[in-house]
Amino acid sequence: MKYIFGPVFSRRLGFSLGVDLVPHKVCSMDCLYCEVGPTTEKTLERAEYVPLDGVKRELSYFLSSSPEIDYITFSGYGEPTLFSRLGELVSYLKSNYPSYRLALLTNSSLLERDDVLNDVKDIDVVLPSLDAASQEVFEKVNRPVKGLKVENIVRGIERLLKETGCKVWVETLFVKGINDSPREVERIGEIIHALSPHKWQLNTVARPPAYGVEGLTFEELHQIAEKVGYPATEIVARSKARRRKFPFSQLKEEVYGIVVRRPCPVEEIADALGVLTEEVERAVEELKKEGRVEEVIYGGEPYVKGISA
Ligand code: SF4
């Protein structure tokens, strides 16, 4: 499969089937914390970066067995709203597979545009990012394409909330020493209260980032949540997956499919797939022998990283 991956167990969406709508690494930002790696094409131009027919073909093949999943999620290697045929894909899934819920992970950079808003309006849950309140911090943490302002981000989320029926779970990812100053936290909090999203999710750097930055502790995130005092706040924490069983060869490919997109600790891969850590360890050993993964150390912890073919 070229455009879909998983299903993986994500902390926010349960079992979700990922769909990559842009190639590695096309994005309107180059975030310090990006777990996919540095952006190679920084753009705000929408295009059919991957063939819609190919994505539809893979989805229909996968969904033909009626798998039990919580969401089909547009995410992956870059910013999914840059895919110009997103609206057509949403309509296709809603018409042909109405029982599946759709989710979108977005950096919010294009949400204020009419065409994008129209493309996402039938998605069940949109998870837009808002990592800064001031332009200065926005540029430090998200390193956006030239001309993109923090006001564009806020206006996009505001339009999403006012003009669509999507559930909106805003995520703020805190990076130590970059967007966690008392002043910035206060201003982000003011924006969150004014926007009033269905959820405000606090996150931090948890996997090897594109650039050498560090995350906050759970206690620090908790203090931020207390200080802002927004009622629907959630600190994104690791969840335990349901138990699943894979044939070994399939498990190996599932593990590779995860770590080639983002480095993960063994325990997190096990959580993601709902299997035992020992099973993942066996798969990783085999993948190492095949030269398809390597171990990297981040924050003193070992991570498994996929080597692209
Ligand atoms: S974290 Fe998301 S928005 Fe930021 S560079 Fe990576 S893919 Fe782009």
Strands of the widest sheet, in order across it, are 1-2-5-6-7-8-9-10
Class of secondary structure makeup: alpha/beta
> CATH-wise, what's the superfamily of the largest domain?
Aldolase class I
Number of helical elements? 10
User: What do the pLDDT scores average to?
Assistant: 92
Shape call: globular
Strand content: 15-25%
Radius of gyration: 19 Å
Termini distance? 14 Å
What's the CATH topology label of the largest domain? Answer: TIM Barrel
The CATH class assignment of the largest domain is Alpha Beta
Spans where pLDDT lies below 50 across 5 or more residues: none
* DSSP strand count: 12
Main attributes of the structure:
309 residues, alpha/beta, TIM Barrel, Arc Repressor Mutant, subunit A, 8-stranded mixed sheet, two-stranded parallel sheet, 10 helices, 12 strands, binds iron/sulfur cluster
3D structure, described in words:
- The protein is 36% helix and 20% strand.
- It folds into 2 domains: 4-235, TIM Barrel (Alpha-Beta Barrel), CATH 3.20.20.70; 248-306, Arc Repressor Mutant, subunit A (Orthogonal Bundle), CATH 1.10.10.
- It is α/β, with parallel strands linked by helices.
- The model has no long low-confidence stretch (mean pLDDT 92).
- The protein is built from 10 helices and 12 strands.
- Helix 2 (86-96) packs parallel to helix 3 (114-120) and helix 8 (248-259) crosses helix 10.
- A hairpin with a 2-residue loop joins strand 11 (293-298) and strand 12 (301-306).
- Strands 1-2-5-6-7-8-9-10 form an 8-stranded mixed sheet.
- Iron/sulfur cluster (SF4) is lined by residues 27, 29-31, 34, 36, 39, 78-79, 107.
